[in-house]
Amino acid sequence: MQNVRQVASEAFCRLGLKPKHTGYEELTDLDAAPWPMNSLQPQWYHTLQVRRIRAQRTRSNSDPLQGKEFTQGLQWQKKGLPFGTASSYLNLEKLGEGSYATIYKGISRINRQLVALKVISMKTEEGVPFTAIREASLLKGLKHANIVLLHDIIQTRETLTFVFEYVHTDLSQYMSQHPGGLHPHNVKLFMFQLLRGLAYIHRQHILHRDLKPQNLLISYLGELKLADFGLARAKSIPSQTYSAEVVTLWYRPPDVLLGATDYSCDLDIWGAGCIFIEMLQGRPAFAGVSDIVEQLQKIWAVLGIPTEDTWPGVSELPNYKPDWFKPCEPQQFGITWDRLGRVPGAEDLATRMLKCCPRDRISAGNALHHDFFSTLPPQLYQLPDARSVFTVPGVTLEPEICDLFISGQRGLHLGRHGKRW
Amino acid sequence: MEGGGSSSSWVPESRTLEEEQENADKAAREMRLHFKITRFIMEAGVKLGMQSVPIATACMVYHKFFRDTSLDAYDPYLVAMSAIYLAGKVEEQHLRTRDIINVSHRYLHPGSETLELDSHFWELRDSIVQCELLMLRLLNFQVSFQHPHKYLLHYLLSLKHWMNRHSWERTPVAAAAWALLRDSYHGTLCLQYKVQHVAIAVLYLALQCYGVEVPAHAAGERPWWQVFSEDLTEQIILDIVSKLIQLYSLDTEIS
Predict the structure, then answer these.
(1) CA B150 to CA B143: how far, in whole Å?
(2) Last residue of a domain, one of B86, B115, B138
């Protein structure tokens, strides 16, 4: 008894006394960054960003300062700063608060890039939150144009900070800025990138498990990046069970709502299908308000109540109680969501993604080759993982309708194509 | 390495031999110690109700940590306890530090009273948490691993369909293969070989132990394991098998 306690606390002392160890130098706190903040007015950023949108760019667009030389004259930037230390980054403004972290916008003093700093405070009783460990360990192995890039990890005594590339908005904000459904061409580009990112992580045997518009970052150019891998995990044996409470209810597939725990890639496909409809239609596909039963009722109202014939094995799921639900017949997607019918291929793709039976859902890789995407340039399928789809000539976002109206009010000629669908 | 061609030859042969002997002794000592500690991880893991994959992850974290660090600097039992805690988080089988401390205490001091919840206890808990952070930093947050388990499961199922039912059911090949795989984590095999190769090698050894012959692939007379892994050679299998056997001789030596 004496022994274990003694060796442990001795070892603990040694931990603290080994400053020369790999990456173990004492780190200053983020707030204590020695550089004055007053040289960085918010105004100044605004101008930078406006300039950047106008510039024609072919490379990754997620950080407005990349490759631009107009900040060279500024004094705050310093050569030779190392990665991994808090003083290499300046904290600009708070962007939001997540489940286990606070997110700040920041700027790197190493290479002038804008970054998102995810600051995780560590409760000493529990150590590093498991979501943080999983997010970092999975993202370390992922390099893809449609996955958010983890630049750096900083440890201080009380906090752990993940440094991500800065992407200026997310799909949730983008949709609320452009209400009433997005331009079908843009939906196609977003959807292609979402499926491209999913196909990539699924190839690496990783599930995202928490797809929702807030977790899909959108850059100025329209690059979509999967973010927030806190709930993601590497999937192992297909028979393995995972903990049940994972996906936000709206994007949760019926099998998980019914209590299944043996989900696989099909979990993310359902979420992606819901997001697809939400982008086109302008409102969530299945917006349940209160509980699982209501959420399921919303789904059955479109897909019909599953039976052993349409979904072998469904009656064995823990929450399967057909008499809880009002009887409903399957509906055509194009009737429930009218905009799906107006874009060639959209209804069919959505139908293939939103199957009640998980095994029937199309895979991300196959979905990419669906006819819905046939109008996109074929070079998109040959891109290396790290290349953005916007590097292919001719691939650009169309202006959203409400943006056109705003410019129309400013006196720009709008023509006869006010509404395209 | 010494710069010139012949300049290194003046070093007396005997001294190099001595040094070599010393290094070999040190390596053998460390191997024995790591064997003991991983046995602790596995037994504590079982008592904590951990499944095989989280236990394997804990061993992997432990071995990786000491591959990059010297044994003199850190207490191996503390590292092992933190490895268990960390593996629980990585594999989503969460464990409480308190349970880990109690189980470890009981393991290291059998028959003694449970620990009081006093300041020493809290110090111990803080040490585990601090050590976890250190390990994450040292391993560069790369703590999600592939394990041979799912491959072994897949291979066992294929082989079962492939072979005639009687020769399969007569012998506990599957159970032996799982046991071999679990025991392989006593050493650093898991860091040195591809997961597919380890899975095949334990299956190979299990089949050999019971003298079960697998019919060769009819057309090209390819051995069965080549069907599972294209880049595997017999030499690799034999290397892994001999390392496994070495682990078992270590076991008899220690206990």
Answers:
(1) 18
(2) B138
